[in-house]
Amino acid sequence: MRAAPLLGASAARLPLSLFLLLSFRLDRGVGAKELKFVTLVFRHGDRSPIETFPNDPIKESSWPQGFGQLTQLGMEQHYELGEYIRKRYGKFLNETYKREQVYIRSTDVDRTLMSSMTNLAALFPPEGVSIWNPGLPWQPIPVHTVPLSEDRLLYLPFRDCPRFQELESETLNSEEFQKRLHPYKDFIETLPKLSGYHGQDLFGIWSKVYDPLFCESVHNFTLPSWATEDVMTKLRELSELSLLSLYGIHKQEEKSRLQGGVLVGEILNHMKSATQPSNHRKLVMYSAHDTTVSGLQMALNVYNGILPPYAACHLMELYSEAGSEDHPCCCLLPGVWRPSGAAVYPHPPWALLAERLLSEHLNRRLNEGRHARPIFVTRHRSPMQHSKDRLSPCGHHSAHICPFKSA
Ligand SMILES: *[C@@H]1O[C@H](CO)[C@@H](O)[C@H](O)[C@H]1NC(C)=O
Ligand SMILES: *[C@@H]1O[C@H](CO)[C@@H](O)[C@H](O)[C@H]1NC(C)=O
């Protein structure tokens, strides 16, 4: 984190008295906070490829459970994440599973369902009276889901929105996107001969060429001779560009309102409920995909441009500040966790930025005193927009319909 050196550097220029005052206030602020509510949004663990390119000698049958499935490595990653969550929030959750305290929702996909279940096995092993089979240190914890066709929260991107489709094609035609794509034009031309995949769209290159090669390398398969380190780097960069252009590059705000912003709205609603005296809920967990984690981060304007790694977990913590009962909740600590090695995956100092933005906007929202409009968080503009800026899940299941409603 760059926060400490920054603070140190500017503090060094301040007169001593001011510096003391500053550190005193900071200390007081930190000491007075009490954790109230936690939201976690994570990606599933290591998986087999979802599909592959025509010339791939490694077919679906090479994977023990076929395509798109959580592997044992993926289970290990989520077990590790569950242990981390237990360590971080064990005291807060009072160590044992209480149904009114936690809610878990997953997309209706094998790998996300299985990831959340593995995670929960580590987070809530039975203790004391909840032990039901002494030979099995596990208890069932419910994981909720809805069919993919009805999922207007986690199964991003929501592609059946005509306005989003327009924005996507505008993005692909934008100068900025073309500028970023240009250096790779010749490289893309070489791919059909090598892979047998003839599509030129970046999402296809990501999901049908880069992703299967990546999965195979993780699992120690021998890659085709053309998949050199240099080729893999270019493929990864194109995949990152694909993800970035999905939610960003052009009209990021409007796209986010139709995509990750919907989840932001839901999370803020939960936080608002968490400030009520009657609230018992302490933890909400969402088990989803790289496109969900990045879509959320794009809507928060804190995305770092890296493909979210397996079991990457975006944490949001809501605190109350003692002595300010009128404005009980005012601070969020977003962070990203990934298994093994680094505790956080590399990111710019956006954690601080997001903390500031979210706490500002959450305060405004909580202070409205009536059912608030969902808001959109952005770095450059006032986030409180007017009705056209409502976060709206797009499509017929929702009360908020995107401007160009689908049939
Ligand atoms: C934790 O749970 C125990 C047993 O149910 C209870 O006695 C204790 O008060 C709880 N602690 C907190 C901080 O809620
Ligand atoms: C791949 O090989 C490395 C080095 O031998 C090993 O540590 C790793 O566990 C293997 N990966 C898998 C998924 O088996």
From TrEMBL:
Residues 1-32 form the signal peptide. GO terms for biological process: adenosine metabolic process; positive regulation of adenosine receptor signaling pathway; regulation of sensory perception of pain; thiamine metabolic process. GO terms for cellular component: extracellular space; plasma membrane; vesicle membrane. The keyword Hydrolase applies. Coiled coil: none annotated. PANTHER family: ACID PHOSPHATASE-RELATED, PROSTATIC ACID PHOSPHATASE. Belongs to the histidine acid phosphatase family. This is acid phosphatase. The gene is ACP3.
